[in-house]
């Protein structure tokens, strides 16, 4: 292994450590990713009617349907609201430009941010599943490989969408504004107000073409013990490729 490679890996590790330290100090990001989805699940699960079987949902309870929704909320909070302003702020302050003159490339910072937010999302997913199971007797995913595949594709879509927002926003204010605009449609497609399986058929078919709508359906199917429909996985994979390609194509370091 060359000395340059060793130095690059050491530098990348230093960047990751520094970014993780800064992330831990961001109370807003931690609350949005880790606590908000779990808190929403606790509030909804505490409503008696949410713990009763609903024929309109195929006999499951509303709290059962909302566990995948809260999982998606963690992705939306991390990918759309938390990560883009951080990256845009670095560009706005010239951090990325200065990094380009050092052995550490700006891509190390971007990969560190995506890795940290991806890890935070996974922790939030585990919390949602654990709280759902322990507090409200929500069954854990019965089709684990299918659930993990849907989860992986969903996280990639969320982070790629965040990178795309960061690539087009010139300032932190613009990044926050775009994130807010995208946030509410994303929550609707994830099923925050009405679970996707409870939507009218015509609306559900449209929502299933969005990344979070397809993710909601794929995760619901895996929770029930079925392999996620290939159509939903295909939509997620297509969005992951398109969003990642667009973010890479349009991203500006300065």
Could you characterize what this model shows?
This is ABC transporter permease. This protein has 254 residues and is mainly α. It has one domain (3-250). It is built from ten helices and no strands. The chain has helices at residues 3-24, 27-45, 62-92, 95-99, 106-136, 144-168, 172-190, 201-207, 211-223, 230-250. Helix 2 packs parallel to helix 5 (106-136), helix 6 packs antiparallel against helix 9 (211-223) and helix 9 runs antiparallel to helix 10. It is elongated, with a radius of gyration of 19 Å. The protein starts with a helix and ends with a helix.
Keyword list:
254 residues, 10 helices, mainly alpha, ABC transporter permease, elongated
Describe how the helices and strands are arranged.
Blueprint: H1 3-24, H2 27-45, H3 62-92, H4 95-99, H5 106-136, H6 144-168, H7 172-190, H8 201-207, H9 211-223, H10 230-250
Helix pairs in contact: 1-5, 2-3, 2-5, 3-5, 3-6, 3-7, 3-9, 5-6, 6-9, 6-10, 7-9, 9-10
User: In what range is the share of β-strand residues?
Assistant: under 5%
Major beta-sheet overview: none
Task: Compute the separation of the termini in Å.
Answer: 32 Å
Order of helices and strands: HHHHHHHHHH
| Overall morphology | elongated
Quaternary organisation: single chain
DSSP strand count: 0
* Structural class by secondary-structure content: mainly alpha
Outline the low-pLDDT stretches. Answer: none
Q: What Rg, in angstroms, do the CA atoms define?
A: 19 Å
How many helix segments?
10
Helix content: over 70%
Count of discrete domains: 1
Average the pLDDT over all residues and give the rounded result.
87
């Amino acid at each position: 292994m060359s000395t340059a490679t060793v130095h690059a890996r050491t530098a990348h590790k230093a960047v990751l450590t520094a970014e993780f330290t800064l992330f831990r100090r961001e109370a807003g990001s931690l609350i949005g990713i880790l606590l908000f989805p779990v808190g929403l699940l606790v509030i909804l699960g505490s409503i008696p009617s949410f713990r009763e079987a609903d024929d309109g949902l195929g006999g499951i309870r509303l709290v059962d349907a909302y566990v995948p929704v809260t999982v998606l909320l963690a992705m939306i909070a991390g990918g759309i609201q938390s990560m883009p302003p951080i990256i845009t702020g670095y560009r706005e302050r010239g951090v990325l430009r200065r990094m380009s003159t050092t052995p550490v490339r700006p891509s190390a910072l971007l990969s560190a941010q995506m890795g940290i937010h991806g890890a935070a999302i996974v922790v939030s997913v585990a919390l949602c599943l654990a709280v759902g199971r322990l507090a409200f007797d929500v069954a854990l995913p019965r089709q684990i490989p299918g659930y993990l595949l849907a989860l992986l594709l969903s996280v990639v879509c969320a982070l790629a969408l965040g990178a795309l927002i960061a690539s087009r926003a010139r300032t932190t204010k613009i990044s926050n504004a775009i994130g807010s605009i995208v946030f509410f449609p994303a929550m609707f497609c994830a099923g925050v107000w009405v679970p996707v399986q409870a939507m009218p058929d015509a609306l559900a078919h449209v929502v299933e073409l969005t990344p979070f709508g397809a993710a909601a359906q794929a995760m619901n199917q895996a929770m029930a013990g079925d392999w996620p429909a290939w159509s939903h996985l295909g939509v997620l994979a297509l969005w992951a490729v398109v969003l990642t390609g667009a973010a890479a194509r349009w991203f500006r370091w300065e």
